[in-house]
Amino acid sequence: MRGRSEYKRIWKFLGVLVGICLLLLVFLIVFSGSSRLETITVEGNTYYTDQEIIDRVVTEPTDQFTLLLYLRCRYREIERIPFVEYVDVKMEDKNTAVLTVYEKIITGCVRIMGSYLYFDKDGIVVESSSEKREEIPIVTGLDFDSLVLYEELKVQNEELFTTILNLTRLIDKYELDVDEISFNSALEVDFVCGDIRVKLGKKEMYDEPVAALVNILPEADKLGKKMVIDMTDYKPGERIIGTYEE
Fold this sequence. Notes:
By secondary structure, the chain is of the alpha/beta class.
């Protein structure tokens, strides 16, 4: 029977052989102009431009070669990109790489001590940034018991927490352009949409009035004036009239 030391020598030899093969492969790639990276395609990105994603991923001198870029991103962690879960890098051919971006699903944010804390559809704080993203509504008028990255928002009561998630879910569902979700001292809700303020009041469910805004907001926005739309006592099918503000 072979001794343990003999097995160690065999594995050591195989390791050296693999290392030599890898070095030879890198040599062939580097000195072969046919394997240079010429085209990069970016998919799945909405928070960043294609070039911003490329600048974050393609960072090393060896990344000018398609295979070496793929291998580096396959076996080494890519620099963290805010609002991005991860980036999958694939070789489409020897001169083309495809970067598929998987973004974090952000539904709202709150501001505290100069920073914006962004949360997902489950109320988990997933990102902190000094910048406010225009497409994400900010929640104002509330005191939060706890705001910790990667943990659930802690509000005064569980019912209010559910209301916030319901509102952000509806905004996302109907693709409404809402800048701010505002609560007053009575916990009544207003939407701020540019120069338009929509008063929704305090309800158990906001599905019907928010759904109605899909048709109301575009018409009100065409007028180009500051306006208050009172939907506190909204009933499905009734006519909504806005009040102009001076």
